[in-house]
């Protein structure tokens, strides 16, 4: 067992996201999200031609979900509200009564059994009606996000005291607006991903300030944001150019979001600003592809979070780019200019991007702590961490992953003094994994997607996590693969 234990005030939870588990895509007055619309039109987007129409059917099976959370022994449940389930057109002139009731009931049922919901407002399921207007490239959509947030605070703020505005704006903008790996699959040639980044940061800040002014005085809750980061490991730590490449990656993918919110500067990092400005100039743009904040906006963004939600899965290896300069299609990748290798470990069945490298987690936590001086009153919450495989219930690799990654969290707390205050495993149960459909599974509980009941079965990793939560320690021998 690890000699360290989790401090008394450290919280354990489990995470999900609405689109990935709810199903009931057109029930209860729900409007379409851009994922519904896009997947119905482009069934080949996922390798198994699947979508979120039914998913794990949590819209109907939430009472069973709650029992599963209880069995894990965790006291916190991080989940998201589906924006189009609450506001079918994305706008607050039309609030779905059934949608509003659904979340109210769910929150109350959780609280009855002492599980505190932590609620994400935007986990990628943009209402189609607003995506049709340009989604996060249209600054007007910020108004509608603010209206939606206000509806949510009004409806639930009496019982929900911890909110996160956005889940992983980076994955959303980079893969959805820059590339075609996520919906809306815009492939925007270096412009759309930065508009998305810019307006998401502003949207976050507006909701934070709105809560502060209109709700915090009497609801007394906290509002944060969830950012994501892979750790970037230089291919050769003794080579200056590899170290530079790793730093460039972190600046362009993590600090572009973290720096405006969590630094004392309140703006994009100088590195990012200069890099995108220079590249834009070279490419013949007469303005930078990265928009500028006004002074007023900087004031609003700076310090606009009560905690730093961090999602972490894997480590990539970095070296200088081998891209030819003539391959000059503007993009965030091109701006970053590094070569990313993912093969840190031997291949195993699962998503290619997710290789297991536990020490990267501790280094990332230290990076966040050192660069953003995370203080006692602004803690880090690990809002997601987990691993995918093909879905077997004897998931020894997932058991080892959670043990090893949580061990790195313990080291970061006890040996490095990093202010981490909580951990949420990704994810409660197998779900719709975005562009992987149902081909890879992250759940602590298996979901039999072929059965009409969407039967749930605990995996060994659920038992192991429950043991960690109960003992507040990691016992590496609690579950061991059979010796063959
Ligand atoms: C997202 C989840 C997703 C997970 C695993 C994170 O980027 O927040 O929605 O399922 O990674 O791919």
Automatic annotation (TrEMBL):
Q: Name one GO biological process term.
A: carbohydrate metabolic process
Q: Name one GO molecular function term.
A: beta-glucosidase activity
Top-level taxon: Eukaryota
InterPro entries per the UniProt record, alphabetical: GH, GH_1_N_CS, Glyco_hydro_1, Glyco_hydro_1_AS
> Where is the catalytic site?
384
Q: Which Gene3D superfamilies match?
A: Glycosidases
Which principal EC class is assigned to this enzyme? hydrolase
Q: What is its EC number?
A: 3.2.1.21
Q: What PANTHER family is this protein classified in? A: GLYCOSYL HYDROLASE (PTHR10353), LP05116P (PTHR10353:SF36)
How is the quaternary structure described?
Homodimer.
Q: Which family does it belong to?
A: Belongs to the glycosyl hydrolase 1 family.
Its protein name is beta-glucosidase
């Amino acid at each position: 067992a690890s000699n360290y234990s989790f401090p008394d005030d450290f919280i354990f939870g489990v995470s999900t996201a609405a689109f990935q588990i709810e199903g009931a895509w057109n029930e209860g007055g729900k409007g379409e999200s851009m994922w519904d619309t896009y997947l119905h039109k482009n069934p080949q987007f996922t390798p198994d031609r699947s979508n979120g129409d039914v998913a794990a059917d949590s819209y109907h099976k939430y009472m069973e979900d709650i029992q599963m959370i209880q069995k894990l022994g965790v006291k916190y449940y991080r989940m998201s509200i589906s924006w189009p389930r609450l506001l079918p057109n994305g706008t607050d002139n039309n609030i779905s009564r059934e949608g509003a009731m659904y979340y109210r009931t769910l929150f109350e049922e959780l609280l009855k059994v002492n599980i505190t919901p932590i609620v994400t407002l935007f986990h990628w399921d943009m209402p189609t009606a607003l995506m049709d207007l340009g989604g996060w490239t249209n600054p007007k959509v910020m108004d509608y996000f603010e209206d939606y947030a206000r509806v949510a605070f009004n409806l639930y703020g009496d019982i929900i005291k911890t909110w996160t505005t956005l889940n992983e704006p980076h994955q959303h903008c980079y893969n959805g607006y820059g590339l075609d790996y996520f919906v809306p699959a815009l492939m925007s040639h270096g412009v759309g991903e930065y508009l998305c980044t810019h307006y998401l940061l502003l949207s976050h800040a507006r909701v934070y300030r709105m809560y502060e002014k209109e709700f915090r005085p009497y609801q007394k809750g906290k509002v944060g944001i969830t950012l994501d980061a892979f750790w970037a490991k230089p291919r050769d730590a003794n080579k200056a150019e590899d170290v530079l490449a790793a730093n460039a990656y972190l600046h362009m993918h993590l600090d572009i979001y973290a720096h405006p919110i969590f630094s004392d500067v309140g703006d994009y990092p100088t590195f990012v600003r200069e890099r995108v400005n220079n590249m834009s100039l070279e490419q013949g743009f007469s303005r930078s592809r990265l928009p500028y904040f006004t002074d007023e906006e900087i004031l609003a963004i700076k310090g606009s979070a009560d905690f730093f939600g961090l999602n972490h899965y894997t480590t990539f290896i970095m070296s200088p780019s081998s891209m030819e300069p003539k391959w000059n299609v503007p993009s965030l990748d091109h701006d970053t200019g590094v070569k990313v290798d993912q093969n840190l470990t031997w291949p195993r069945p699962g998503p290619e991007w997710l290789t297991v490298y536990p020490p990267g987690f501790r280094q990332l936590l230290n990076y966040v702590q050192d660069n953003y001086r995370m203080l006692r009153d602004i803690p880090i919450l690990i809002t997601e961490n987990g691993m995918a495989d093909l879905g077997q219930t004897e998931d020894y690799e997932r058991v080892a992953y959670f043990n090893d990654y949580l061990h790195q969290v313990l080291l970061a707390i006890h040996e490095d003094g990093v202010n981490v205050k909580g951990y949420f495993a990704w994810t409660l149960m197998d779900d719709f994994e975005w562009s992987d459909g149902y081909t890879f599974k992250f759940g602590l509980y298996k979901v039999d997607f072929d059965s009409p009941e969407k039967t749930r079965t605990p995996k060994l990793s659920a038992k192991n996590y429950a043991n960690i939560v109960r003992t507040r320690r990691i016992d590496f021998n609690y579950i061991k693969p059979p010796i063959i």
